[in-house]
Write a structure and sequence with these properties.
α3 (about 35-45) runs antiparallel to α6 (about 130-140). This protein has helices spanning about 5-15, 15-30, 35-45, 50-80, 85-115, 130-140, 150-165. It is about 70% helix and about 0% strand. The protein is mainly α.
Length: about 160
């Protein structure tokens, strides 16, 4: 497993229009970090179940990059969305935002592989365990879904991601 493998998996899930629209709505409404949600689901697809501490460690590493780079790029690009005179600059911002997301994927991978007890082989789930259950459990470890307030949105995301495979 590598960050590159994850990146291609994430792009394929994001290419599925219903999944993309739901992810974007969760990003807008709940401040979901899409690439983070896709990462924990990808790990679930690989048979990995994350602990709360694992997700907290990953979030500690990525939060500055998200806050200082990803969100400002996205905010400016969205602000320029209706300004036809800035279409070329908006396209450039979109490319920069995509590169920032790709770097975020690398940060997530680095944080994951740095977790204690060799996470690349530990915490694998027994054969036959439902992939949807692992997706749900890993997503519940994310801050946005931690309190269970958005269970229907989380369950819909799981269904859409599973449908996109």
């Amino acid at each position: 497993m590598t960050a590159e493998v994850f990146w291609h998996w994430a792009l394929a899930r994001y290419a599925h229009e219903p999944a993309r629209q739901h992810l974007l709505a969760l990003q807008a409404d709940l401040d979901l970090v899409i690439i983070e949600a896709l990462f924990v689901c990808w790990l679930a697809a690989q048979g990995r179940r994350l602990r709360q501490d694992d997700v907290d460690a990953m979030q500690t590493l990525i939060t500055p990059w998200v806050a200082e780079v990803v969100i400002p790029l996205r905010t400016l690009r969205q602000r320029w969305k209706t300004d036809l005179a800035k279409a070329q600059q908006r396209d450039l911002l979109l490319k920069l935002e995509l590169e920032a997301e790709r770097y975020l994927a690398e940060l997530l991978w680095s944080a994951y592989t740095a977790l204690p007890d060799n996470p690349s082989t530990a915490r694998q789930n027994p054969a036959g365990e439902a992939e949807a259950e692992r997706f749900n459990d890993n997503l519940c470890a994310l801050t946005v879904f931690r309190q269970g307030e958005y269970a229907p949105q989380r369950q819909q995301l799981v269904a859409l991601l599973l449908e996109s495979t």
